[in-house]
Amino acid sequence: MEDSSQKRTLEVKASGPALDLLASVGHHELQKCLFTDSLVAVSASGRELGEFCISVQKAGYNEEPCYLVHANSHGLIDGIPCGTSVMAYVSRTLETLEQKHHEYVMLKDHSLDRKSHIVRSEGQLVVNKVITEGEKVREDTSMFPLSSVQGFVSEAANLLIMRILALRKVLPENMVFLSFDSEMNMSSSTYRSLGSMQQMVGAEEADVFGIERTVETAGILRATWHCYFLCDGHLTNRAQVGSPVTMKLQKLPDLIGEELRDKEPILEKKPLIWEDDMQLYSTFLDQKEQLKADHVSYLKQHPELRALMLDFMQFLLLRKPSDVFSFASDYFAAFSSKHSTRETFTASQTATSENSAN
After folding, report:
1. For residues 333 and 339, is the Cβ–Cβ distance under 8 A?
2. Residues in Cβ contact with 168 at an 8 Å cutoff, skipping those fewer than 6 apart
3. Average pLDDT for consecutive 10-residue bins of the chain (358 residues)?
4. Is residue 221 part of a domain?
C-alpha cells in the first residue's frame, strides 16, 4: 500500500504558482481569516435541508502556535440524515499538522460512514482511513514522505486558502496543489478565478468574488466547487457542480474592518447583583470566580473541545442510541491510534442493528 501511495504522489506535482502562494502568505494575512461563517443548506426548490459552518481560531499544537479549523454540515436530503465534519490544526505556513475528517449517510438498510485521520509524524504524512458500509469495514493506512508532498493542501487548509484568495481577489494562473480525493488518493487540486459579480444575500444585493476549486484523480474523475465571498472573506455561497444542494448565506453580516481585525475580542463581565448579606458569601464568591476563570482559561487553550463536542452531539442525536455510554465509547475510541478500529466499528454496527431490531 505504501508503494502504490508513493507512486500516486509522483504522478501529481504542485505547480510553481501554488508553491509561491503558500510561501507568500504572512501571519498578518492569516489574522484576517479568524472568524466564523454560518450558512444554510438549501435544495434546488429553496427548501432548507441543514446547516454549514466554518470557524477558524488561534490554537496551539504541541506548543506550536497554529490555527484550529473546524467545518461541519449536517442535514436531511430526501429524508436521509447525512453530514460531514472536518477538524484540523493548520500551521502558520498552511501545513496540516493533524486533521480528522468524518462523513456519513444514514440510509435505512445500508449506511455509509467514512473516517480519515491525517497526521505529520517522524518525517511522514500518515493517513489512516476507515470506511464502513453496512456491516462491512475497510481499513487502510498510507504513508507519504514529507519531501514528496510539497504543496499538499488538506480540506482544512483549503478553507484558509479560499479566504486568503478572496481577500486578495487575485488568483495566479496554473495554481495546482496536491490534495486527497474522496477515496483519500493523492490527487491534484486546481483553483481558478470566477471573477466578481452581484449576488443576492437574503433580501440584499452584494458584490462577491468567485473561486472555483477542482479535485481530480488521474485526469478522469472530477469534483468541482464554486464558492463566492464578500470583500472581507465571508462565504456567501458554496455549491458542488452537479449537486442539487447549495450552501447559502441568509443575511449579510457586518463587514470586518481593519480596525476590528487587529483587536482581540473583549469579553465583558456582567455585574453581579447580590442581597444585603453579600459579605457572608464573599469567600464563596472568590472561590467561584477563581474556578470559573480556570475553566474559561482551559477552554481558550483547547478550542478543539467545543468543536469536538458539537460533532459528537449532532451525530448522537441523529443515531439516537439506547445505550449512550457505549455509543460515546465507540465514537471517541475510533480516533485512538492505540485502539482497534475494526473492533470499534464492528461493535457500533452490532449495537445499532440490535437497536433497530428492537
Report:
1. yes
2. none
3. 47 91 94 95 90 94 93 85 92 95 85 92 93 89 93 96 96 94 88 95 93 81 92 95 92 70 48 46 62 80 85 86 86 66 46 47
4. yes
Whether residue 54 is contained in a domain is answered as yes
- Report pLDDT for 337: 58
The domain tally of the chain equals: 1
Predicted pLDDT at 284: 57
Contacts of 342 (CB under 8 A, 6+ apart): 137, 139
pLDDT for residue 202: 86
Domain that holds residue 99: 2-262
Residue 353 lies in a domain: no
Say if 75 falls within a structural domain.
yes
Cα–Cα–Cα angle for 60, 64, 70, nearest 5°? Answer: 35
> Grid coordinates standing for 36?
466564523
The β-bridge partners of 255 are none
